[in-house]
Amino acid sequence: MRGRVAVPGDKSISHRALMLSALAVGESRIEGLLEGEDVLATAAAMRAMGATITRGDDGIWTVHGVGVGGLMQPATALDMGNSGTSTRLLMGLVASHDITVTFIGDASLTSRPMARVIDPLSQMGADITASPGGRLPLMVRGLNPAVPITYTLPVASAQVKSAILLAGLNTPGTTRVIEPVATRDHSERMLAGFGADLTVEQTPEGRVISLVGEAELKPQQIVVPGDPSSAAFLVVAATIVPGSDVVVANVGLNPTRAGIFTALRMMGADITELDPRTVGGEPVADLRVRHAKLTAIEVPADLAPSMIDEYPILFVAAACATGTTVARGAHELRVKESDRIAAMAAALGEIGVRTEEYDDGLAIHGSGGAGLPGGGTIATKLDHRIAMSLSVAALVSDRPVEIDDASPIATSYPIFFASLDALRGTNDVAAA
User: pLDDT tens digit string along 343-379?
Assistant: First the structure.
């Protein structure tokens, strides 16, 4: 694999850029927005609640917001597709507005628990009626004025933190979130950028984020960096395919998101940051990645919050390493788009990789740098990251690997296969 490729815009930042632009008064412009199905679901939801959102021929998105407190009653249920981020964050937005919104989604999203968001938003006064198990379909009846709360996160979750802060935007008084373990901080960075009165303090109890409500957000010009979660698949592919020398351009390296690159370097990956810079308040660099022999590690549990979405592709890297890699402390993987611990254990087993499953992670017995046996049909469980991870594993497998359903990849990385093909020299669709 050789060449230079750019990955789509960061999904987490794209969601938040659309939501906050829709709550600002005036016109915001967003460059580099991820145009995957998850983010498009967020755009459709914000349109349904009154914002004017258009895409120019130049790929720049323009948003005319309704102002904090100005969300309108949507005419129909909001279909979130596969996007847990859209659902949880929008539940927060709605919770402090005097509207009633029903959220629906696909089979994967409908199976995901929402209780961890329902609890704090209910404390703020929202009336939430969910399906059994705290799942979709669910209805949120917002309360205005809502009640400010101080909430300590029982589990590290940027989505829960963000939902509470977004609810706090239209809530009089100060809303506080205490996170004992720091999670990705895109919401805090972007809220401050839009002019919200937000402070962050390190205390013995953890990181305390305080937001003064009834905010007035100012429109912004936003440049979305490349998604490190998407980049991770290409970085691992270049690392495990012999002879590879790849540059992945414009990768966001927010320290709350870059744990996968830390873990790969601990295993011996050859990753060099070129042209480090700051774009829209976020650290960015081009990553040069060359093939390297990997050695098994015990993945530090404290990396989990900064790489929770990247564990599936880390497991693939571990399958190609020398020794047994142990990755634990990642309970959150059980409640992602799929149960990613069980799904990856089964998928790796299908291609001849031995694993042991724990309640909070996996042990993966590596091949010592040899090719993987391959073969088998992978049950992706409607999970884009399972599909992409096993597609990367197939690059070093002796026999073809069949993916039962690759369509979920469109939720986060619509040109994933074009990017792989470009680096393999079979086309240049994704060259940048």
Answer: 999 999 999 999 999 999 999 999 999 999 999 999 9
- Residue 25 · residue 216 · CB < 8 Å: yes
Would the pLDDT of 288 be above 70?
Answer: yes
User: Residue 428: its pLDDT value, please?
Assistant: 41
How many CB atoms within 10 Å of residue 173?
A: 15
Average pLDDT of the chain to the nearest whole number: 94
CB 217 within 8 A of CB 195: yes
What average pLDDT score do residues 266-286 get? 93
| 212, 174 Cβ separation under 8 angstroms | yes
In terms of Cα–Cα distance, which of 152, 144, 143, 150 is closest to 122?
Answer: 143
Catalytic residue among 38, 106, 309, 383: 309
Residues linked to residue 152 through DSSP beta bridges, in sequence order:
178
Give 335: exposed, middle or buried? Use CB within 10 Å, 0-12, 13-18, 19+: middle
CB 185 within 8 A of CB 256: yes
Residue 309 annotated as catalytic: yes
Residues 6+ positions from 27 with CB-CB distance below 8 Å: 62, 63, 64, 219
> Do 357 and 326 touch, CB atoms closer than 8 A?
no
Written in H, E and C, the secondary structure of the chain is CEEEEECCECHHHHHHHHHHHHHCCCEEEEECCCCCHHHHHHHHHHHHCCCEEEECCCCCEEEECCCCCCCCCCCCCEECCCCHHHHHHHHHHHHCCCCEEEEECCHHHHCCCCHHHHHHHHHCCCEEEEECCCEEEEEEECCCCCCCCEEECCCCCHHHHHHHHHHHCCCCCEEEEEECCCCCCHHHHHHHHCCCCEEEEEECCEEEEEEECCCCCCCCEEECCECHHHHHHHHHHHHHCCCCEEEEEEEECCCCCCHHHHHHHHHCCEEEEEEEEEECCEEEEEEEEECCCCECCEECHHHHHHCHHHHHHHHHHHHCCECEEEECCCHHHHHCCCCHHHHHHHHHHHCCCCEEEECCEEEEECCCCCCEEECCEECCCCCHHHHHHHHHHHCCEEECCEECCCHHHHHCCCCHHHHHHHHHCCCCCCEC
Mean pLDDT of 243-269: 96
The answer to whether residues 78 and 136 touch, using CB atoms and an 8 Å cutoff, is no
Tell me the two tokens of residue 387.
């599909």
pLDDT, residue 129, reads: 98
